[in-house]
Protein 1
Amino acid sequence: MSAAYKAEGNAALSDTATSGLPPLPPSLSAELDGDVAILHLARPDKRNALNDPTVLGLEAFFTGLPDQVKAVVLVGDGAHFSAGLDLSELQERDVAEGIHHSRMWHSVFEKIEFGRVPVVAVMHGAVVGGGLELACAAHVRIAEASTYYGLPEGQRGIFVGGGGSVRVPKLIGASRMMDMMLTGRVYDAEEGHAIGLSHYLVGDGAGLEKARELAKKVAANAPMTNFAVMHAVPRIAEATGSNGYLTEALMAAIAQNEEVAKERLRDFLEKRAAKVEKNR
Ligand code: 1HE
């Protein structure tokens, strides 16, 4: 990462020290709810547009989480999740600067996707451009009814740069992504849910509560299982079958060897553990 990005990102950090969470720029805020950290995109006057300090603040947050945090909820303040890249920063970058800027986003979003703890994103209002790219780096996505998805890069004369061309097709297919970018097609919350952009669809204002509920469940899993889900599942999905089977076998053996796994299996066999039940 370039020193210039670092310097800008460290400007005017907020005081999250009392919670043990990393210091953040003013465009982000965070609080702890037990073992779940709630991270807010906190720049509603600019529709949570992602400028460099914000993106670098995301990196500081996800690389500096204290051990007690077992899951993160990511939510946007105001009427929109995020309007994507801060277009006011998109000055006349030359080719090399453009490449480094995009690679900086890649590096930060990789720290979310392949970080230490799973992330539950709450989406509402505009989830567009880099905002959709950010949401796609989370592991579980909840959409409130107001959510709409767009990739307006085509209209702006630019291209995705935050990993969207890798992550979005994995959710909805390259064909749908091409349509979104070429025609400016916008999916509403229900359409987005039907094609796989969200895992859960809830009413307006209900997203954060649902996210807390899901994040608590995630946080209660054995840490090695969460690690395997985050780090092994997407890589196995990209591997050849033969490599995938071997990686899966190794991961399964490592997870089952953990003391917490042995305890949980004993709990089930001795009738102390919850059964798998149908949703009521
Ligand atoms: C912004 C941005 C932004 C708003 N960069 N400042 N993203 C886009 O192309 C989406 C552009 N934004 C919009 O289409 C609309 O702002 C929204 C639909 C998200 C919200 O509309 P609205 O009516 O609620 O807000 P607004 O009046 O348009 O914007 C409020 C303020 O936020 C205004 O600033 P102000 O100083 O005049 O008050 C806007 O200029 C500002 N604002 N969005 C900068 N994006 C790694 S590559 C990723 C590539 C991309 O993400 S491309 C997609 C960019």
Protein 2
Amino acid sequence: MISRRSAIKALLFGSTALATGATIGFLANSSKADTSFVNRLKIPPQLKGKMQNGVRVYDLRLQKGATEFLPGIKTATLGINGGFLGPTLRLRNGEKIRLNVTNTIGEPTTLHWHGLHLPARADGGPHQVIAEGATWSPEFEVKQMAATFWYHSHMFHKTGEQVWKGLAGFMLVEDETSDTLELPRQYGVDDIPLVLQDRSFNRDGSLQYISSMRDIMMGMKGDIAMVNGAVTPFFDAATQKLRLRILNGSNSRFFNLGFDDERAFHQIATDGSLLAKPFETTRVSLGPGERAEIVVDTSGARPLVLRSFPPEAPGGMMNMMRRGMGRGMMNMMGGGIEQIDFLQIRHAASLKPGPALPARLATLPRMEASSAVKTRRFVMEMRMGPAMMMGGASPLTINGKAMDMNRIDEVVKLGDTEIWQIENTSPLPHPFHIHDIQFLILDRNGQPPAPGEQGMKDTVTLQGGEVVRVIARFEDYADPERPYMYHCHILEHEDAGMMGQFIVKA
Ligand code: C2O
Ligand code: CU
Ligand code: CU
């Protein structure tokens, strides 16, 4: 039993260990495997909604909580229908849904359905503020391929802090295709949602958020890893095949995920769809906001550890070297080079075998570059050095502009297919996210996307200096006034203004 005092002490030592690039996790020694994974993984409860006159209705209450992340220490948090994070909403393609979102957190907030194609009024972005005590009830039809989505606060200037405190949860969509596929689908048994996050704590056990300009420029990073709100968790696998729906729900960290014994697994889905076919690999990289589904064979002599490895080519490293910045600078910038052990997967002596993975998964829409009527450019820029110290203009911009709620940056014509060319001129990686649509990646630095990026996406990570072209169709919903957002999904960057607005016009 770890005492309150020693747990806090351990946390402080954890921070020190992190600064030197050591493995992080609770007590900063989770690489010493078996004994250091002490908390059973929590599986978020499912919320299936209730049918009312042909509409499936979900009730969500945003509330304050007191959560015990560390033994004997209560931390003030925020949650949805609970103290930290929220339930997993089960959605079906083609169903009409209504989400009754009641805010009781004591300050204004919003709730955004990340990745969903929906009318702008239902998006839950910075324009759909829910006052304290109020209920917001967007209604729309689920028009989505089966995949793993999430919802989170999108309050302008407050998104980073409110998500850090816990305002986020999963949405799992099923469709006609996923119904027929033989994939692990027993929620909590062989179909497991995993939100990977990091947090840091103050001496009194409270969550620690932004304490310097650096936390804004580099993004807020914690020194304690957690999965579904559990620190150093383990999961008891009963089946040989385990489907993990992994969400990078961190504010600013980039993960390069695999298993400690380097075993191969299959990636089966990206942000917004299943892949055309399973892709065998040993790594999947996820920037903040991105998701992937994988299926791993859990059998073997030892328990498995789901680990984030230091990137093979650290974020923007080559580009930075060209700019004359060395490794020290890289460390200082906290580019997420640490090794993080997230979850231990233990297995029973005899595992229930599962069917072989289907050879084909989803049928993806075809979108040829030649069908695009327009190419728009989005340049993600960070002004570093002395300029960032000068007050006034934000050093974090897209196309030279910081977010202005009263300015529409782009107008897209309803029904058009467009190419968005995204450029990252900064040395740090940035995940670019677009609301309303799912896109396909046309190319990355002129090369076709890697197999693990060939499904539908709503967020794409750009390393320093990279150029990515994506293609999407803007259909179904037009609104002459209410905009959708596009932004960097490093939440501190988004809050600082690395965000723009587009409307879809009929
Ligand atoms: Cu996940 Cu605009 O957000
Ligand atoms: Cu979104
Ligand atoms: Cu960014």
Protein 3
Amino acid sequence: MMKILIQNIKGLIQYSDSKRGIIKGNDMGNLPVLEDSFLIINDDKIDSFGSMTELTEDTETFDQVVDVAGKFVFPCWCDSHTHIVYAGSRELEFVDRINGLSYEEIANNGGGILNSAKKLQNTSEDELIESALSRLNEVARTGTGAIEIKSGYGLTVDAELKMLRVIKKLKDQSPLTIKATFLGAHAVPQEYKEDRAGYINLIINEMLPIVKDEQLADYIDVFCETGYFTPEETEKIIQVGADTGLKAKIHVNQFTSIGGIETCVKNSALSVDHLEVMEDSDIDCLRGSNTIPVLLPSCSFFLKIPYGPARKLIEADLPVTLATDFNPGSTPSGNIPFVVSLACIKMNMTPEEAINAATLNGAYAMEVDDELGSIEVGKKANLFITKEIPSYSYLPYAFGSSLIETVFINGKKV
Ligand code: NIG
Ligand code: FE
């Protein structure tokens, strides 16, 4: 048994004495902060916490005592949307965009997702594991403690399964909590351009049964977008996924609004992700549903596309969630502190709203809320300590600074 005392915490962020539900609407402005406090880690779990005045145990009884005067303690971020298993990088497309090409034009010229798929098909499982592990280490250092990872750069039976087997191994090899999402419907491969139904049948009849047998995925995803998959095709895949026991987390409304949100809500998707281009009717669809809206502002930043309508979603009493979208094409970054800053700067979320969105709501969007997303007795000791800062709002304010000093995953320093 390893017992660690963290004491003299300036503010313990997102603590809760009993389970807090997903955070919606006006309540998103409420961020619980316990000032002048302590927290005790026992092995891999949060054992207890409270005000310094309530600390009764003798410091001798701990294996380690960490004094954090002037510093804040946060629960780790829960990044519910990434594509961190990939091969190669796409900075040439980045330069093409600087020179005036659009994301769509690049994709139509053989770049984009198909470019990454070609590279991944020719990369071994071991190489994919190695590069993904190094990305996981990188995001852990900026405070991420749980992460969802999608397939979708395979686009053949073999390569999609290879990606998912890699993610399964990452679950064993990384201390982070990982959820896997099957995104066979990320793009229509070149050889199926004239036979879209053929590719969808391949997903349903060849890929999904093995995904199920080998328990390779927790969720199913589709890129529902003009030029990718229609709402009707999306619905079919969501429904077959549901029969296989996979809830849906869907890419939708990134570039165009084509009715995908209605399809997702009707089919009880767990989350709808991106939402850069939203009609009022799309927001109305989400109102009162259990489908979680996930915004990805670092994708908007990198592709220079609109930011999701965070304020309108909050006004509609919805539980806005933030994630990175870390991937080689549209968001080559997994830095949640930057996402939180962008949410404040570009989407007018308050620091309280943005921190709620990237912690507990992120946990709900990947169903790890029982063990992560907040400081609660019995939850995993995935938390981070900041440097000395004047207030928690300083974190999004001082964008680009590395203000996270120490990260604990499963009670161990990383
Ligand atoms: O979430 N939009 C679809 N998929 C990724 C980008 C894919 C790529 O360009 O490689 C995204 O932005
Ligand atoms: Fe994505």
Protein 4
Amino acid sequence: MSSQSRNKFLATLDGHVEATPPVWLMRQAGRYLPEYRELRAKAPSFLDFCYDPKLASEATVQPIERFGFDAAILFSDILVVPDALGQNVRFETGEGPRLTPIANAADLKALRESADQSKMARVYEAVEIVRSRLPAEVALIGFCGAPWTVATYMVAGQGTSDQAPTRRFAYEQPEVFQALIDRLVTVSIEHLVQQLKAGAQAVQIFDSWAGVLPIAEFERWCLAPVLAIAKGVRAQIPHAKIIAFPRGSGVNLPRFEANQDIHALGLDTSIDPAWAAAHIDRQLVVQGNLDPLALLAGGRGLDEAIDRILTAFADRAHIFNLGHGILPPTPIAHVEHLLRRIRGG
Ligand code: CP3
């Protein structure tokens, strides 16, 4: 690698401590960007947009061209997996996803065993286009939803605040729920492997709803499936770099340490960076964890929050990010300010 094409994000995932951390933002391609809103208007539905290699690749590259982040994340959605398994998935404008709920063993049986490759091939084509457009110093991240988080949408048929329908399903029909989780583990391994083969250099597993489960269920439905995916991906692609983002895991975060397959842990907004620096093994790279609302609000509170994160992780491998996705009303000037403050100058 020449010094000019040095990839700071990948070096950090390898454990190098950089003078200033690499930075990308969850949901960095999205509605806060006017160019995204313009592009999004070209597809009839959100899923059509995700499955259009030209539009999806363009949306992925937009925030890199505007801000020069150190990594791009593929523009897609975690719910392409249930869609490609044959579940009915729609996105209602302003209301979020709507799926035909999985209520029992018969509904699960009606789904495909593996994802429809005529749909997924278009996602991997987007990955190829993006990789060919990005300079070598910008990394490309692929992703999937963790089985628990994807299952919450598949069972409830929509987002809920406490995932009560899916928690209840898991208690009442544990064998059926286990079969659903196992199906998602298998399909997610395949989905991540294909993204890596198409040009993604790291993958992130989003477990956005890991925080709602008691400990035994956390171990069974979050920790075990995420580790199984990481292991399965690395069995096929030994050099694959894997970031886990178990949002809301709190003091259970160190449970991700005892394996060799997870390289980085995404920290959500609630984690004190000083606690994470003291309690998460230095072998694990940390990523996060600015409050998206602090970025939206700006001002002195934003600067203090950025500095607290930079100080806590100054002497260890750290990828700067938000603790959850960027919010649509976030001013672009605040993102520019964030980058200046992190990078200096
Ligand atoms: O820039 C990126 O981060 C890449 C693209 C990306 C999207 N969704 C695009 C998107 C990624 C990585 C996701 C992950 C995702 N999708 C998660 C996990 C992360 C998290 O936010 O917790 C979840 C739970 C979903 C499911 C999902 N997709 C919901 C609940 C919604 C509706 C809420 C919303 O923000 O509108 C979506 C839609 C969605 N996915 C949008 C985008 C840009 C907005 C729709 C639009 O622009 O028309």
